[in-house]
């Protein structure tokens, strides 16, 4: 519905969706029955009522994303891992 064809196909064929503070509204999900059918959804949100409200999270995490973002600290913008991350 919204976004480019490439972006929509990338989401549709994803294995994992790492969602931080997203709403998963109808503009991004379109048809929920067909939304990313093979993806594991990890959803982090500070508001517990937002998690699994629209898209069911396989791994729900309630909390502030800032402290929890340390898990991704070893990934740089270029996609390479730092020495600290192994």
TrEMBL record:
The keyword Transcription appears for this protein: no
InterPro entries: DHS-like_NAD/FAD-binding_dom, Thiamin_PyroP_enz_cen_dom, TPP_enz
Residue ranges annotated for the Thiamine pyrophosphate enzyme central domain, each copy included: 1-66
Taxonomy, superkingdom: Bacteria
GO MF, any single term: acetolactate synthase activity
EC number: 2.2.1.6
Keyword Transferase belongs to the record: yes
Keywords: Transferase
GO CC term (a single one): acetolactate synthase complex
GO biological process: isoleucine biosynthetic process; L-valine biosynthetic process
Pfam families (UniProt xref): TPP_enzyme_M
Sequence similarity: Belongs to the TPP enzyme family.
Listed name of the protein: Acetolactate synthase 3 catalytic subunit
Gene of this entry: ilvI_3
């Amino acid at each position: 519905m919204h976004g480019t064809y490439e972006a929509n196909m990338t989401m549709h064929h994803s294995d994992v969706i790492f969602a931080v503070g997203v709403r998963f509204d109808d503009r991004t999900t379109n048809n929920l029955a067909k939304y990313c059918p093979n993806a594991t959804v990890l959803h982090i949100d500070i508001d517990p009522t937002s998690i699994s409200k629209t898209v069911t999270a396989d791994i729900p995490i309630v909390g502030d994303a800032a402290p929890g973002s340390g898990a991704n600290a070893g990934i740089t913008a270029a996609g390479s891992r730092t020495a600290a991350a192994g």
